[in-house]
UniProtKB/TrEMBL annotation, chain A:
It is found in: Endomembrane system. The lineage of its organism: Eukaryota, Metazoa, Chordata, Craniata, Vertebrata. Gene3D superfamilies: 3.30.450.60. This is AP complex subunit sigma. Component of the adaptor protein complex 4 (AP-4). Adaptor protein complexes are vesicle coat components involved both in vesicle formation and cargo selection. They control the vesicular transport of proteins in different trafficking pathways. AP-4 forms a non clathrin-associated coat on vesicles departing the trans-Golgi network (TGN) and may be involved in the targeting of proteins from the trans-Golgi network (TGN) to the endosomal-lysosomal system. Adaptor protein complex 4 (AP-4) is a heterotetramer composed of two large adaptins (epsilon-type subunit AP4E1 and beta-type subunit AP4B1), a medium adaptin (mu-type subunit AP4M1) and a small adaptin (sigma-type AP4S1). Residues 1-140 form the AP complex mu/sigma subunit domain. It comes from Oncorhynchus kisutch. The gene is AP4S1.
Automatic annotation (TrEMBL), chain B:
The lineage of its organism: Eukaryota, Metazoa, Chordata, Craniata, Vertebrata. SUPFAM superfamilies: ARM repeat. The keyword Transport applies. This is AP-4 complex subunit epsilon. It is a peripheral membrane protein. It comes from Oncorhynchus mykiss.
Length: 144, 987
């Protein structure tokens, strides 16, 4: 079960956060700071999984961007690690055509995540199907 | 990272530049959000951020309120509001506008409206009710995109009570011609099942239809429901096993459309989901399990590509194989598979391998055996997470034999870690293991340092929330333990419990009545099986707890009974004293307030170890003619001198532990006289003496040791520290497993633990038998026995007294300390203890000395003696980790290479056999054996302390063993090699 997904820059600033378990808005920043600190402090040769409180963190770095996923004990860390990559490939597929960046399209990145993960479960991993609703939306917006 | 992933990464230039500052302005499609994000990125302080966001929120507030704001602008505003909330700033005024946007916006705006709602609100928010109509409208829309987004938001959050309002429409969508609608409808129903299972009970048959949907996406979606259903009630869904197996077979066989592949692996996450379902179905069900063996095997076989995702599948597959009813052939393959993980140089796979092992060893602890070396390596891994995972694994394979080492390792880790959560978790495990080990070992064999370490762990550390939690945890678990049957609890454990309860019961606050702990302790006192030692601990704990009126009353009651006739005959003075103290304490309110201040619990007390407060008393006593205090050492010397006083039992210093030992296993007269004379001298066996004199001397059993060799031993309990270790008396039969810890240790440079290990391996070795003088090698000690006479009829002349004994120092060896002569009565043996070390490494050295003695009626006599000692007498095993070995190897300059003969035996590999032979004969430590190579370490006693190391690297080379020795000592490799050669030739 996925508890949250974070996208963070190297300075530790949150670029996107999505929670699948309720966390009060006021408590999120400190949780994120803590989580990011754990991941950023890890060395390259150390494993990509961190124990944190009663759950685990899976993190993956893409240049200046970190993606951190909080998961429960029973989740398969490596499958989440690859899920992150699948997600990044989807982003690449979508944004390379629109020539834009995720940080200025917070809404669209969220729409993509909504297709992949729901209620903390992986619901779609087929790239075409993940993007289908968003592409249809874009098409209709263009027509307007 | 695999090559495939590496390539993909390099093919992501657009994404990699995403977060760069340069592109920010140019790429921004919406300048206001762009400016906000840019502004945030440039900020340096939290304060600035707060200022900026406040300003932004003001501007948003103004804009949403304005009637002129278009829906298009509103969409952009909502994204900004989302951003502010993401940074932790409430934008609750915009919630209603998000709902409005979802109601009134055109498709993309509507989607953002729904998105904002799903991010802003939580499932119980009443605002959600305002959304129900919009959702219903969109579900019925002819625009598929609107239907889609309505279903998406429903499957994320929906008010539970409103489900009936939309359920029929959602159900209807299950038969929609478009797969995406069917799929999302299934997911919406899954959500309903999660929040209100009763609402969807009637549509279970429709779930089955979804499972059989021709579209793989719809089928996949239905698996979420089934995983949940099967997890909750596997019995009802056994009939689905066939379908699940078929689906998995098709997926694994690549029957899905190609776009379901991820890096050429067919729908990996779907495979994982199916494997989980199969695990639930096949658990403890042989029939069902048999149906899936084939497909599980196929899964294992197919997942051969070297990519992370195939390993993720394999991991799940292994877990399933070890969860369902076992099939040995499959288990073997799965175990092999774990091997690949554990041995992988990729750290992520190693982690997963450890996790898999942790899982499977619960079924069969032997599975860890092939990976012992890797596990040991991982225990010293630089990555804390790997270390932690390894401990988790060890926790699962703990048994009576290894519990000591494992708990030690855990405590070691705890000392290094600063992570509160893992500390608490791990300490819980340590506590559990400690308990378990105590149970399984009956408590008497357990190393005393484990409970001590545990107590220290509890007592140490700053008084923060975590520590308090930890202590409370211990208190609670012990209280519940005492509430049960305590008869089987070992004494040592009861002592631990008493101490913990005494120190930390106050953490339980007033939740329970204050006397409850006191009552439990009192019950312990009443039980017959509680030893006097333990009783004394219990009384100590009660003294600390004696604060509330209830406790005081209880304490008084206990003491009265204790001091009454029932116990008054007890010889145990310590116990009586404690009871007396407690009695006085319970009667005197003022004293209680001073001794047990309510606030003073956490302050550590200064312990005056010099006992200066007794000075007045002492000088008074001296003035009154009392004899001055003499240390046991002095007393003993006196005894040797003043032979007129025949008080032999005191002749040897009493081992510190004598008081706590039980006089059961000891040398008996059954043994042959020669052997007896040997061993009695060998260990300075004072138990024997006390046994002999048992009837006439003071009974020391059960008396708590308060006064030690050097005076009073600070009772650290009151200072919040660990209690004095209870030294265990091992079986004096001196088996290699139970070293005589009561042996006097002239050289204190060795850690006790290491000493034990050395002892175990080196005891009795080199017990040569010169006719009149024999030499026994003990750690850094040479014992010299001089037998006066062998024949029985001359026994009356045995009263010889040795005057002097010394060893000549020479170039190669030196004597670093010696002890006075001791005479062991009745065994015609006198003992003298000298520590001898080898100054310069050489193959063999001569030890020469002079002994002078005097027979009762004769003239002083002198005898010279000399002994030949070989290098191996000065060798000790050197226990190092593989990692440390590697570091040391590189730093040593003197080396030597040589081929040696391989030992061949029937049962062992030649390498193992050869190393075992060397280990046995030369007391080397075999650090590791990997394939055809073995690494071995030893050290040479060269002076006080550890001694100098010598490392051996051995490799099997055809018929011989290529040995490479390295040491910081010039002559050591050469001399050691000589002995290795000799040892192997003799084998």
């Amino acid at each position: 079960m996925i508890k949250f997904l974070l996208m963070v820059n190297k300075q530790g600033q949150t670029r996107l956060s999505k929670y699948y378990e309720q966390v009060d808005i006021e408590k999120r920043p400190s949780l994120e700071t803590d989580v990011v600190k754990r991941c950023l402090s890890r060395k390259k040769e150390e494993c990509s999984f961190v124990e944190y409180k009663d759950f685990r963190l899976v993190y993956r770095q893409y240049a200046a961007l970190f993606i951190v996923v909080g998961i429960s004990d029973t989740e398969n860390e490596l499958s989440i690690y690859e899920l992150v990559h699948n997600f990044v490939e989807v982003l690449d597929k979508y944004f390379s055509r629109v020539v834009s960046s995720i940080m200025f399209n917070l809404d669209k990145v969220h729409i993509i995540i909504d297709e992949i993960i729901q209620n903390g479960h992986i619901v779609e991993t087929n790239k075409n199907r993940i993007l289908a609703p968003l592409l249809a939306l874009d098409k209709m917006a263009e027509a307007h | 990272m695999s090559d495939v992933v590496e390539k993909t990464l390099s093919a992501l230039p657009s994404l990699l530049s995403l977060d760069s500052q340069a592109g920010a302005g140019k790429l921004s499609p919406s300048s206001k959000l762009g400016n906000l994000i840019k502004g945030i990125t440039e900020l340096t302080s939290k304060h600035e951020e707060e200022k900026l966001i406040k300003k932004e929120l003001e501007s948003i507030k103004e804009q949403v309120a304005s009637p002129n704001t278009t829906m298009r602008q509103m969409k952009e505003i909502m994204v900004r509001a989302i951003y502010c909330e993401m940074l932790g700033y409430q934008a609750s005024f915009s919630y209603i506008h998000a709902i409005k946007l979802a109601q009134q916006g055109s498709v993309l705006e509507k989607r953002v409206g729904y998105l904002a709602v799903s991010l802003f609100l939580n499932e119980t928010d009443e605002f959600l009710l305002l959304l129900v109509n919009t959702v219903l409208k969109d579900l019925q829309s002819t625009n598929l995109i609107e239907v889609c987004m309505a279903l998406t938001v429903v499957s994320q959050m929906f008010p539970k009570d409103m489900i009936p309002a939309i359920l029929p429409v959602v159900e209807e969508k299950l038969t929609h011609p478009k797969e995406i609608i069917r799929r999302k409808a299934v997911l919406a129903l899954y959500k309903f099942y999660l929040i209100a299972p009763n609402q969807v009970q009637h549509i279970h048959s429709k779930f089955r239809k979804a499972l059989c949907d021709k579209d793989p996406g719809v089928m996949t979606a239905s698996l979420h429901i089934y995983l949940q259903l099967i997890k909750e009630n596997p019995e009802s869904y056994k009939d689905l096993t066939g379908s699940m197996v078929t689906i998995l077979r098709q997926v694994v066989g690549g029957k899905l459309p190609l776009d379901f592949n991820y890096h050429s692996v067919p729908a990996p996450w779907l495979q994982i989901q199916l494997l989980r379902i199969l695990a639930y179905l096949g658990k403890e069900d042989q029939g069902t399990s048999e149906m899936m063996y084939d497909v599980l095997e196929e899964s294992l076989r197919r997942a051969e590509m070297n990519h992370n995702i195939t390993y993720a599948i394999l991991f799940e597959c292994v877990k399933t194989i070890y969860t369902v009813h076992p099939k040995s052939q499959l288990l073997e393959k799965a175990a092999e598979c774990i091997g690949n993980f554990v041995l992988s140089p990729k750290i992520n796979l190693k982690y997963l391998g450890l996790k898999a092992l942790t899982y499977v060893v619960q079924q069969d602890a032997n599975l860890a055996l092939p990976h012992q070396m890797t596990i040991i390596e991982c225990l010293d891994h630089s990555d804390v997470i790997i270390k932690r995972e390894t401990l988790e694994l060890l926790f699962r394979i703990t048994n009576a034999q290894n519990v000591t080492v494992i708990v030690e390792k855990m405590l070691e880790f705890l000392r290094l870690t600063c992570d509160d959560y893992s500390t608490i978790d791990l300490v819980g495990k340590v506590a559990e293991l400690t308990m378990n080990s105590v149970f399984s070992l009956g408590g008497d064999v357990m190393q005393p340092d484990i409970p001590n370490n545990f107590l220290r762990l509890l007592a140490e550390g700053v008084d923060n929330v975590e520590d308090r939690q930890l202590r409370l945890f211990a208190v609670d678990s012990y209280v519940s333990l005492l509430q049960g049957v305590t008869a089987k609890l070992p004494q040592r454990f009861l002592q631990v419990i008493s101490w913990v309860l005494g120190e930390y019961s106050y953490l339980r606050e007033e939740e329970s009545d204050p006397g409850s702990v006191m009552r439990l302790l009192a019950r312990l006192l009443d039980q017959r099986h509680t030893s006097t030692e333990t009783r004394s601990w219990v009384l100590g704990a009660m003294t600390k707890l004696c604060s509330s009126p209830v406790s005081v009353a209880l304490a008084r009651d206990v003491c009265e009974r204790y001091l009454s006739s029932l116990y008054s005959g007890s010889l145990n003075t310590v116990l009586r004293q404690k009871a007396q103290e407690l009695m006085i304490l319970s009667q005197d309110t003022k004293l209680r307030a001073r001794v047990l201040p309510a606030e003073g619990r956490l302050e550590s007390l200064e312990v005056d170890s010099s006992l200066s407060f007794l000075d007045g008393y002492v000088s008074e006593a001296l003035a009154a003619g009392a004899a001055p205090y003499k240390s046991p050492h002095q007393r003993q010397e006196d005894l040797v001198q003043e032979k007129a006083l025949s008080l032999e039992p005191y002749g040897l210093s009493l081992p510190v532990s004598l008081s706590s030992c039980s006089i059961t296993d000891r040398l008996t007269d059954r043994r042959s006289p020669t052997l007896l004379s040997m061993s009695s001298g060998l260990s300075g066996n004072s138990t024997e003496l006390s046994h002999q004199e048992g009837s006439t001397t003071l009974k020391l059993e059960g008396v708590k040791r308060v006064w030690g060799k050097d005076g009073y031993l600070a009772q650290q309990q009151s200072a919040g520290e660990t209690p004095t270790p209870l030294v265990e008396l091992p079986n004096p039969l001196l088996s290699p497993q139970s070293p005589p810890s009561q042996t006097q240790k002239p050289s204190s440079g060795l850690e006790p633990d290491q000493e034990k290990r050395q002892l175990a391996s080196s005891l009795f070795v080199g017990l040569g038998s010169h006719n009149s003088v024999c030499l026994v090698r003990l750690p850094s000690t040479v014992w010299l026995f001089i037998k006066h006479c062998q024949s029985a009829n001359q026994s009356h002349v045995f009263k010889a007294l040795f005057k002097r004994f010394y060893i000549n120092s020479c170039q190669s060896i030196s004597c670093i300390s010696g002890s006075p002569l001791k005479e062991v009565k009745g065994h015609s043996v006198s003992v003298c203890l000298h520590t001898v070390v080898m100054k310069r490494a050489s193959v063999q050295v001569e030890l020469a000395g002079l002994l002078s003695y005097q027979r009762p009626l004769g003239q002083p006599q002198a005898a010279q003696f000399s002994l030949s000692l070989s290098l191996k007498h000065f060798l000790r095993p050197l226990t190092v980790s593989t990692g440390d070995y590697g570091k040391m190897w590189l730093s040593f300059s003197h080396d030597l290479k040589q081929n040696l003969r391989l030992v061949t035996t029937e049962h062992q590999e030649p390498l193992t056999a050869t190393l075992d032979a060397l280990k046995g004969k030369l007391h080397l430590h075999v650090v590791d054996i990997i394939g055809s190579e073995g690494i071995v370490a030893c050290r040479l006693l060269q002076g006080p302390g550890q001694g100098q190391p010598c490392l051996l690297h051995c490799r099997v080379n055809a018929d011989s063993l290529a040995v490479w020795l390295r040491s910081p000592v010039p002559e050591l490799p050469d001399s050691l090699l000589y002995h290795c050669q000799k040892a192997l030739t003799e084998t």
